[in-house]
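User: Design a sequence. Structure:
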Protein backbone atom coordinates (compact mmCIF):
# COMPACT_ATOMS: atom_id res chain seq x y z
CA UNK A 1 0.00 0.00 0.00
CA UNK A 2 1.25 3.45 -0.95
CA UNK A 3 2.12 5.99 1.74
CA UNK A 4 0.27 9.30 1.60
CA UNK A 5 0.32 12.50 3.61
CA UNK A 6 -2.81 12.70 5.75
CA UNK A 7 -4.13 15.77 7.57
CA UNK A 8 -6.57 15.41 10.47
CA UNK A 9 -9.81 16.83 9.08
CA UNK A 10 -12.20 17.25 12.02
CA UNK A 11 -12.10 18.95 15.43
CA UNK A 12 -11.65 17.37 18.86
CA UNK A 13 -14.73 16.37 20.83
CA UNK A 14 -14.66 18.05 24.23
CA UNK A 15 -16.22 20.79 26.32
CA UNK A 16 -15.20 22.81 29.37
CA UNK A 17 -16.37 19.97 31.67
CA UNK A 18 -14.34 17.19 30.00
CA UNK A 19 -12.20 15.33 32.54
CA UNK A 20 -10.78 12.35 30.62
CA UNK A 21 -9.12 12.48 27.21
CA UNK A 22 -8.96 9.41 24.95
CA UNK A 23 -6.38 9.83 22.18
CA UNK A 24 -6.11 7.77 19.03
CA UNK A 25 -3.17 8.12 16.65
CA UNK A 26 -4.75 9.61 13.50
CA UNK A 27 -8.20 8.94 12.00
CA UNK A 28 -8.54 5.95 9.69
CA UNK A 29 -9.66 6.53 6.09
CA UNK A 30 -13.24 5.64 7.13
CA UNK A 31 -13.16 8.04 10.11
CA UNK A 32 -11.82 10.82 7.87
CA UNK A 33 -14.62 10.12 5.39
CA UNK A 34 -17.24 10.37 8.19
CA UNK A 35 -15.34 13.21 9.90
CA UNK A 36 -15.73 11.52 13.29
CA UNK A 37 -13.83 9.20 15.59
CA UNK A 38 -13.64 5.41 15.27
CA UNK A 39 -15.81 5.32 12.17
CA UNK A 40 -14.91 1.88 10.83
CA UNK A 41 -17.80 -0.48 11.61
CA UNK A 42 -15.39 -3.26 12.67
CA UNK A 43 -13.65 -1.05 15.24
CA UNK A 44 -14.87 -2.04 18.72
CA UNK A 45 -14.31 1.37 20.35
CA UNK A 46 -17.98 2.38 20.65
CA UNK A 47 -19.04 -1.05 21.95
CA UNK A 48 -16.23 -0.98 24.53
CA UNK A 49 -16.85 2.60 25.67
CA UNK A 50 -20.62 2.18 25.99
CA UNK A 51 -20.18 -1.05 28.00
CA UNK A 52 -17.72 0.69 30.36
CA UNK A 53 -20.16 3.59 30.77
CA UNK A 54 -23.18 1.31 31.26
CA UNK A 55 -25.00 2.58 28.18
CA UNK A 56 -26.45 1.08 25.01
CA UNK A 57 -24.02 1.35 22.07
CA UNK A 58 -24.67 4.66 20.29
CA UNK A 59 -25.56 4.42 16.61
CA UNK A 60 -25.32 7.93 15.22
CA UNK A 61 -22.53 10.48 15.46
CA UNK A 62 -24.85 12.70 17.51
CA UNK A 63 -25.51 9.84 19.98
CA UNK A 64 -21.76 9.14 20.23
CA UNK A 65 -21.01 12.82 20.80
CA UNK A 66 -23.74 13.14 23.46
CA UNK A 67 -22.62 9.99 25.33
CA UNK A 68 -19.03 11.23 25.54
CA UNK A 69 -19.95 14.72 26.71
CA UNK A 70 -22.48 13.37 29.24
CA UNK A 71 -19.66 11.35 30.82
CA UNK A 72 -17.07 14.18 30.54
CA UNK A 73 -14.97 12.25 28.01
CA UNK A 74 -13.00 14.09 25.34
CA UNK A 75 -11.81 12.47 22.11
CA UNK A 76 -8.99 13.51 19.83
CA UNK A 77 -5.90 12.17 18.17
CA UNK A 78 -2.22 12.62 18.91
CA UNK A 79 -1.35 13.44 15.30
CA UNK A 80 -2.44 16.44 13.22
CA UNK A 81 -0.55 15.38 10.09
CA UNK A 82 1.65 12.45 9.04
CA UNK A 83 2.65 10.13 6.24
CA UNK A 84 0.78 6.82 6.52
CA UNK A 85 -0.12 3.78 4.40
CA UNK A 86 -3.88 3.22 4.70
CA UNK A 87 -4.78 2.86 8.38
CA UNK A 88 -1.50 1.20 9.42
CA UNK A 89 -0.16 2.89 12.57
CA UNK A 90 3.12 1.01 12.13
CA UNK A 91 3.70 2.89 8.84
CA UNK A 92 3.37 6.40 10.41
CA UNK A 93 6.26 8.73 9.59
CA UNK A 94 6.84 12.51 9.91
CA UNK A 95 4.17 12.93 12.59
CA UNK A 96 3.16 16.47 13.55
CA UNK A 97 1.25 16.60 16.87
CA UNK A 98 -2.13 18.15 17.59
CA UNK A 99 -2.27 20.98 20.15
CA UNK A 100 -3.27 18.88 23.15
CA UNK A 101 -2.20 21.74 25.44
CA UNK A 102 -5.15 23.76 24.14
CA UNK A 103 -7.60 21.05 25.22
CA UNK A 104 -6.00 20.93 28.65
CA UNK A 105 -6.32 24.70 29.04
CA UNK A 106 -9.96 24.77 27.83
CA UNK A 107 -11.27 21.86 29.92
CA UNK A 108 -10.87 20.05 33.24
CA UNK A 109 -8.95 17.11 31.72
CA UNK A 110 -6.97 15.38 34.45
CA UNK A 111 -6.20 12.03 32.84
CA UNK A 112 -5.13 11.07 29.34
CA UNK A 113 -5.36 7.60 27.80
CA UNK A 114 -4.02 6.37 24.46
CA UNK A 115 -6.20 3.95 22.54
CA UNK A 116 -3.18 2.08 21.23
CA UNK A 117 0.60 1.85 21.24
CA UNK A 118 1.47 4.29 18.46
CA UNK A 119 -0.65 7.05 19.99
CA UNK A 120 1.04 6.55 23.38
CA UNK A 121 4.53 6.43 21.84
CA UNK A 122 4.05 9.63 19.82
CA UNK A 123 2.34 11.45 22.71
CA UNK A 124 5.29 10.65 25.00
CA UNK A 125 7.78 11.80 22.36
CA UNK A 126 6.03 14.87 20.89
CA UNK A 127 3.53 16.19 23.46
CA UNK A 128 4.31 15.12 27.02
CA UNK A 129 7.55 17.18 27.13
CA UNK A 130 5.33 20.30 26.72
CA UNK A 131 2.25 19.35 28.76
CA UNK A 132 3.98 17.32 31.50
CA UNK A 133 0.77 15.26 31.72
CA UNK A 134 1.50 11.53 31.54
CA UNK A 135 -0.48 9.16 29.34
CA UNK A 136 -1.76 5.67 30.11
CA UNK A 137 -1.71 3.24 27.20
CA UNK A 138 -4.80 1.12 26.59
CA UNK A 139 -5.07 -1.68 24.02
CA UNK A 140 -6.27 -0.83 20.54
CA UNK A 141 -9.93 -1.52 19.75
CA UNK A 142 -9.03 -2.03 16.08
CA UNK A 143 -10.04 -5.34 14.49
CA UNK A 144 -6.31 -5.75 13.74
CA UNK A 145 -5.86 -6.32 17.51
CA UNK A 146 -7.59 -9.70 17.35
CA UNK A 147 -5.64 -10.99 20.37
CA UNK A 148 -7.94 -8.91 22.59
CA UNK A 149 -11.52 -10.12 22.95
CA UNK A 150 -14.33 -7.61 23.44
CA UNK A 151 -14.58 -8.71 27.09
CA UNK A 152 -10.85 -8.15 27.73
CA UNK A 153 -11.01 -4.72 26.07
CA UNK A 154 -13.98 -3.69 28.22
CA UNK A 155 -12.12 -4.77 31.37
CA UNK A 156 -8.98 -2.86 30.33
CA UNK A 157 -10.94 0.31 29.55
CA UNK A 158 -12.67 0.38 32.97
CA UNK A 159 -9.58 2.27 34.20
CA UNK A 160 -10.97 5.45 32.59
CA UNK A 161 -13.80 5.67 35.14
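Assistant: Done.
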Amino acid sequence: MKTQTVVHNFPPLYDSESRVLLLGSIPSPKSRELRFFYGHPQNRFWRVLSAVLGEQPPQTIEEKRAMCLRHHIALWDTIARCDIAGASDTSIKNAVPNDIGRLLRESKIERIFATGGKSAELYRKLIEPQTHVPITQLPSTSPANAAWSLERLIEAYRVIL
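The first strand starts at residue 3 and ends at 7. The radius of gyration is 15 Å.
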